[in-house]
Amino acid sequence: MARVIVVESALSFLGLGVPPPTPTWGGMLADGRVYLSTAWWRATFPGVTILITVLGINLLGAGRRDTLDPRLAR
Asked: What is the spatial distance between Cα 34 and Cα 16, in angstroms, rounded to a whole number?
């Protein structure tokens, strides 16, 4: 799931993803890139949101694997 979020964000950042009227995190990053010197938050907050979401999904998956995998030694 986290990989899908990163790939979709990257494609939208490059302009190859969802069409412009639909808001996406990658599209918000691309739009905010122009305003980095005057309005840094327009690119920073979507980037931090992607980071937190992907990290959370990865940590949740690792925790579930550690809890439910019977082959792991405890």
From this structure: 18
> Contact 25/9 with Cβ under 8 angstroms?
yes
Token reading at 21:
């009227």
How far apart CA 34 and CA 28 sit, in angstroms, is: 11
CB count in 10 Å sphere of residue 52 = 10
Which residue in the block uniquely carries the two structure tokens 């949101």? 49
Which tokens is 71 given? 């082959």
Mean pLDDT by 10 residues, the chain (74 residues): 94 90 92 92 93 96 87 68
Global pTM? 0.83
For residue 6, which amino acid is it?
V
Query: For the chain, what is the radius of gyration of the CA atoms?
Result: 16
Q: Quote the CA–CA distance of 67 and 36 in Å, as a whole number.
A: 42
* CA distance linking residue 11 with residue 25, whole number of Å: 10
